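haha ok so turns out i had the wrong file open the whole time. this is the CORRECT one, sorry everyone. sequence first:
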Amino acid sequence: MNLMKRLTLILPLLLILAGCGAVPEYTQKFALSNAKPQAGEKVTVYFLPASDAGEKEVVLKVYEYKANLTDTKDYPMEKKGKGYTATFTYSEGSRGGLLIIDNGGETENNAGYGWYVQVHGADGLPVPGSDAGMAYAMVNWAEGALDLKKDSDKAYELMKNDLDKNPGLKREFAQAYLNLLNAVKGKDVETLLSPAVAEIEAAADKSEDDYTFLIAYFTNRKNPEKVNEIKAAFKEKYPQAVYFQRVQFNEFYREQDITKKLELADKFRKDYPISDYHNDLNDILINWYRDNKKYDEALRYIDIHKEKVRPFRYYTLALRMYEEEYDIQTALKVTDMGIAKAKAEYENPADKKSMTESDADWKESRGSLIAMNLFVKALLLERSGKNDEALALMQENYSYAKGKDDKYNALQTRLLLSLGKTGDAIKLCEDAILRGYDNKDVTENLQKAYIQKNGSGSGFAEYLSALEKPQRDKLISKLEKDLMNETAPQFTLVDLSGKEVSLADYKGKTVIVDFWATWCGPCLQSFPGMQNAVEKFAKDENVKFLFINAWERVTDKKTNAEDFIAKKKYTFHVLMDYENKVIGEFGVQGIPTKFVIDKNGNIRFKSVGFSGNTDHMVKEIEAMVAMVR
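then structure:
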């Protein structure tokens, strides 16, 4: 395959007409000033959006990679003519990057594939490792972190060709290649990786990554004797290695008895006094105290380990206290600790930035932790009748959250109404609806404010419909872009009653398949909305929901799922994917993941994760179903 054809398949590089210093004439949606940048050279991106972002910021996001993702950087785009431009330069040592554009909150990502821009040499060819790094992105972090489509076969071709031409890279890319080969069926893992394995085994300077790869490789080849031999050498050379920390942490995680769990936590801290897992130990134990309503014990535990307790844990503990109507003063104490910890983390972060976050993303996420704890304290103060104090907290909350959370907007508008600030409540409700950060409570608060202002509800329905129209149009436009048409994998699973259920049973119907697990926070957060969706379509025989339980981490998976569904009183039709076979066949990388399958057995929509807004999720499901009937 010649170079031009290869580049065309990976990145449709589009020409643009631009005069020196003049406003560019945008002839395509996305184009580059330099399709083959060398190290240190500037690249200007030209972007013509399908819809103008208006006053919202348009940001170019560049995900740089070497063998793996190394950093994420934001470049605000400048409006020029009908489009936008931004110029970036790769960091030293980068082999390329994956580009996407945040168009005022809407993601532009080249129909789900992103735009790859590789670093080139003086010969005009991608530098060694650029294709291999791109291949790893395609099947690893680009899908899992950015929800982009993957092409395992294309990635295999890129990886193999790059490593064949540059054998010196085989050691660096050994783990990435193994992961890729496991994702591509019919490839001879041993033949393709044996040179890298031999090189790494013979190396006197083995790194932690080298040992971790050898363990993964020989585990894959079902050679336990070799695995044990490597582990022994690994442990001797790197006794504090993250690999061994993870093994011991998993033992702690699986333990169900709380006394033994606490003992294992103490042992872990003693064995690994410096470890990023300390925060995770505390998260899990505080959650146990919370879930078992042992709030005083949770506080005693926090007092001992507060240096390694994340701000989010204070929020979840205080929120559960609020929901259970536990002692308000104790709950307020927790929120005060959470606010103080979150503000300290905001100013001097102890946690590490994720590689998928830019500096701006990271600061926003740290600010969101302050907003969360302020929100729960405001709820508690509202319950105490201190609405003026609660409103002051929610106004501070807005400075961090920017009104981008429907729950916050619902509380703040409710407080405004309670204090007679009708005009402010209307303004905030309108802004929330226009920007898509509303829910049922926000619209109900707007209706109350509307009646207070106008003396009656006459004309409210038309007024609300006009406010909601931009978001309705935006949703339909997004779904039209997301529409797909792929044959759904056929499956037969057993439900909680022991009955076999096949996808084929629902031929001629629209089926929503939701993959979930009881440990998955976003899954559980989405379920009240999913229950609403199930109820909305309960009388429609042509729409069915299947909730496939997979990736569970307990021994008795059936009882675990049954108990959860019964406790929450959900009317879900749950199927058990005991061997995690079906979730693999659907190519799921993270949960929750939902698929909308049409009457002909074709996947038409795939939705990963949960935005946090149950009302919007239900509206999205309704729109998807309407589009594929």
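The chain has a mean pLDDT of 92.
again sry for the mixup
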